[in-house]
Amino acid sequence: MRYPQLWDAVRTTWHRDPAERSSPARVLAEHMNHVLINRYRREWLGGIAWDRYAGDARRPPANRGVPAWIDGVEVQGVEIDTDPLVYGVGASLGQGGVVTAVLPRDELDYIRIEFAKRP
């Protein structure tokens, strides 16, 4: 992926069975890794690490309890705000669903981060 694509910025994930891998923090970390590897290959300091945000299983990769907006309603979300290139935010949709967004830091001043469910 040489050019940023909208469908890479926002991702909805569903897991049948709840597990650590299906947590919003873990899903967001995997989404950030995907975007960084595919969009920021040259800019990524320290080379390519396929699990940059997977981290230690005992330490969560994301900040929890941050506000996220879904259909105009504030919900408890997660964020990863440590990367110099991108910012990530996500939230649980219930019933195994997780929504995440990974956005370029250069564009954050022009973006209002809100999610909407399809009818």
In short:
With 119 residues, this protein is α+β, with helices and mostly antiparallel strands. It is 17% helix and 32% strand.
The overall number of domains is 1
Q: State mean pLDDT (0 to 100 scale).
A: 81
Tally of alpha and pi helices: 2
Low-confidence stretches: none
Relative helix content: 10-25%
SS content category: alpha+beta
Give the biggest sheet: 5 strands, antiparallel
Order of secondary-structure elements? HEHEEEE
**Could you say which overall geometry the principal axes of the C-alpha atoms support?**
globular
The number of strands is 5
| Head-to-tail CA distance between termini | 30 Å
Strand order of the largest sheet: 1-5-4-3-2
| Computed CA radius of gyration, to the nearest angstrom | 14 Å
Task: Estimate the strand proportion.
Answer: 25-35%
